[in-house]
Structures are given as C-alpha cells and as structure tokens.
Amino acid sequence: MERREREAILRQGVSRPETPRDRREREALAEDVQGNPLAGEPLRRRWRNFRPDADAQLAALGGPLAWMRRLRAIELEIELHETRLAEALEELQLEWSGAELARRWHLVAESWDFSEVNDLIERHNRHYPTESRLPMNPRTGDFVLVNGRPYTREPLDASWILSRFPVDGQT
User: Fold this and answer.
1) From start to end of 46-148, where are the E strands?
2) Which one of 90, 120, 138, 144 is least enclosed by Cβ atoms within 10 Å?
3) pLDDT tens across 26-64, in order?
4) What does pTM read for this prediction?
C-alpha cells in the first residue's frame, strides 16, 4: 500500500483545522439561512406515484427505449428534409420568380420522397402506445394525450412542404 493512500485512510473521520476559505463559506451559509423565510420549517413532502421496479431498472441499463430512438430518428430525418428543401427552394429562386417559381416548387413538392421518414412515423403510430405503456382513457377508450396532444404523427407529404415553405405566385 502506498504511503499517500494509507494516510488518506487514516485521516478519515478526523476533523482538520478551519481555513479562511472554510470560514467564509460557513459565514455565507449562515447569512443565507438568516434571510430565508423557510428556515426551520419542515420540507413539503413529495408524493411519489410510482415504485421503482426491476423492469424499469433493467430498461434503464439498456439506454434509450425503442420508441425514444425512433422519435429521435424521425426528428433527425425531418431536419434533414427541411435542410434539403430549403436548398432546393433557394436554387429555384435563383432561376425563377413569380408564377413559374410557384409552379416548379409545386412540382418539386409533389415529387419529393418521404418514404423513409413516413415509414418511421407509421411504425411510431403503431407501436408507441404499447412500448411506452401509454394509459387509456376509460371514458373514451382512446389513449391519453401526451403533453396535451395526441401521440400520433401525421405523415409528411407535398402539403407539408408547401405549408412549411410557402411560395407566392404573385411576385
């Protein structure tokens, strides 16, 4: 055993003399406590609606769950499409304007391929409720809303492009 390690073990539990830095920190903490209106009051109890179980711990060891990875892949695909669409629109705007630009942009939007991201969206819509253990509303028989919105995602198409990147034909 090294000397430094042995001394560290022997010093455990032994108080050391107060340094000027320790004194400043202690005084700053004492000042904070004096100005705090909640000092000396019991903390509010935080109720937990869950119990950690073995399933959750094992799932946590595996990293992000399948639905989390799929949602991230959908977001990345959408960002990639937005970047490519912005570049395509810029190229068209350099060559065309007015009604011809709008006509050509509609053609690009109609021919744009969203097959990969739409496949991910379709799999998300099909598997998300079971993978995330989404509860059902007993009154309606539907799954509950996630952050106030339905869990389903709409597939991307030409109307999505035209709403995201509008082009005026009257320029």
Assistant:
1) none
2) 138
3) 898 888 888 787 777 777 787 777 666 766 776 677 788
4) 0.65
